Each structure stands twice: as structure tokens, then as C-alpha cells.
Description:
This protein is an alpha/beta fold. It contains 11 helices and 8 strands. Helix 5 (206-220) packs across helix 6. The radius of gyration is 23 Å and the shape is globular. One of its GO terms (molecular function) is hydrolase activity.
Amino acid sequence: xxxIARLLSIPLTLIAMLVLWLAVSPFTPHISYWGAGxxxxxxxxxPLLLIALVLVILAALGALASRSCYVPSVLAGxxxxxxxxxxGTQIHAAxxxxxxxxxxxxxxxxGVEKADEGPxxxxxxxxxxxxxxxxxxxxxxxxxxxxxxxxPRKHPVMMYVHGGGWxxxxxxxxxxxxxxxxxxxxLVLSIDYTLSSWEQPTWKVAAGQVGCAxxxxxxxxxxxGGDSERFFTYGESAGGQLVLxxxxxxxxxxxxxxxxxxxxxxxxPSAVYADSPALDVRHxxxxxxxxxxxxxxxxxEKYLGGTPKEYPDRADFVTSATxxxxxxxxxxxxxxxxxxxVPPASYDDFRQRAKDKGVELEEYVRPHADHAxxxxxxxxxxxxxxxxxxxxxxxxxxxxxx
Length: 402
């Protein structure tokens, strides 16, 4: 028994150290390299808590046979306490925001890119350099009828723009959330756009492609049961920046999109929800985080075709604050308190510009979280995202109820 316990102590110690790192780092995010665990821990803290609990039990049983299991016992115990504390903080904060948290669901380990079924349709909304730009369509699963009318009621439309630093990820990155929003009665659209690379910076075209997708909404949403006058946009990280910039542009120029070569008149969004939007490339480029800093700089350089100092006009063009006008519809921004990829200071100019222009801006800060922490399908923060976004869109709908 002692031999088995000693053999088990090594893997138990290693696993306990990993879980401890992911559970504790959200409380200590500013420790170099160590704090990078906060990019993962808050998203999957439910499953990590279960792992810590199992480790505590196994290590305690091993400690009865050998002192070599004392170390993993202590490590697993600390990880368990930290996990309980972090999950409890998330639940409390989400409930304060009105989220009806499904606590058992938070213990499952599924990413938002996973969905039980794919989109109902995929269409081409534009092209760029000979390549098709495509859009996934998720049809509403409810079919409401207008009161006193025998005609089917058209559904509100939500368009999602994915994140990934302008150079990665796809329109399927939040397939779970797309289907969830369709189940809530929205015609959901998720678009691809041209990704940046060292050979092809996209600072001038990406937001314009989002605007071209808004042209498609105005022209074709009704073909799929959607109402283009009840139109909402959502994006996270780089997608949040793109959707904010495009929404601001079409709101200010509703008859014809600037900075694009696509024809048509865009649908004008009634509200925009942005999760951890990359509002200011200068702040992102200047990140001094030892873990994420170089990646952030590379991302910005690929997007701009160089550094913000080399191309200040390009940096100004993509900075979201420069696009805001008094015509901008209501905005909700949800971000994290310790975002190492999009520094909190990057929101300051945008917040002031919104105030100066009289733009309605709501902002919520997730505690003990890092960049885009709502990427676990059943995690507390994604539960909050789905409920908060639905309520925000409903509050800004032209009609009182779905």
C-alpha cells in the first residue's frame, strides 16, 4: 500500500499544482507568468472545483498510507478552497446583475464553439479578392403570432462578429450561443470576415465587411423570417471592436456605408453588445504583460501592417472612439477587471467620447476574470452573457415583447 501511495504522489502533486495555479491565479493576476492562468481558470472553475475535490479525497487516502501524499493533500486543499471562492464570487456577482444562475450546469466542461447542431443555412454575403465571405444563419425555433393577426410575426435579428485578434477564429467560434439566441426567438447571423496576416493587413477592410453584412440584413433578412428594423449586433474581443465601429458607421451614414465598395443600404442596429472589445490598438500594443505582450504586439502589427507609431493614421482609423457620433445606438460593454490582452485603460477614451456625444453606454466589469471569460458554454459568465444580452436587446427593441 505504501508503494502504491508513493507512486501516486507524483502525478497527484503535478495535477494538484496545475489545478491550484488555475484556481488561485485569478486572485493574483499581476504576478508575472503565474497570472496568465486567469485566462483559463475563471471560465472552467466549476470542473476545476470537482477535480480539486477528487484530488483532496485521493491524496487524503494516500496520506493515510504514506507521508509522501501530504504535499498533494495540501496543494489540492488550497486549490479546492480557491475554486469554491472563485465560483462563489462569480455566482454572487452574476446574481447581483439579475442572472438566474444554473449552478449544476456550471460544473460541465464544454466550450461555446460546441453545438448540438450546426447552422440552418450558410450564405455568401460578399466577396474579397475573389474569396467568398460567408454567413451562418440560425433560424428562430419559436414562431410567434402578432396579436389579432393570422400573419406570422417576423423575428428580431442578431448578428455576431467573432473575435480572435483579427487574425484567427471563425464564425463557428460561438456556435453554442448562436443556437441559444435562436431558441430565444432571434434570427441569428454569424459572419466570417477576412483575417489579417503579415502579408495582408485588414485594418481598412474588416469593419467595412461587417457593414456589408448589414447591407445583406436589410436586403435578405425577411427571406428568413427576420425583421431588419429590429436588428442587434454582438461581438467579442476583436469582433467587439469591429461591430462597434461598423455599427457607428452605419448609424451615422444610414443611406450608404463609408469605407466600403459593396452596394446597398445597411440595416441600422438598434443596440450593440460587446464583450471585452479591443477598442484601442495603442493600449493593446503597449501591453507590458510578460506572457501575452508579444502576442498582442504581433496581432496589432498584422492588423495595421506595422506598429501604431509607424501608422498613426491607421491606428486612429481602427480606434473605436473615433467612430462614435451622437447617432450611435445604445451600447453595453461587459469586460473583466484583470484583462491582460485589452488593458482597462483602453476603455477610458471610449467612455469619455460616448459621454461627450450623449451615447447611452452601460458597462459591467466581471470580478477576478481575464480576457473574454465567457467562453465556457455553461460557465457562470456565459450564462450571464446570454441572459444579459437578451434583456438588453429586449429593452431596446422597437416592440415590447418577442
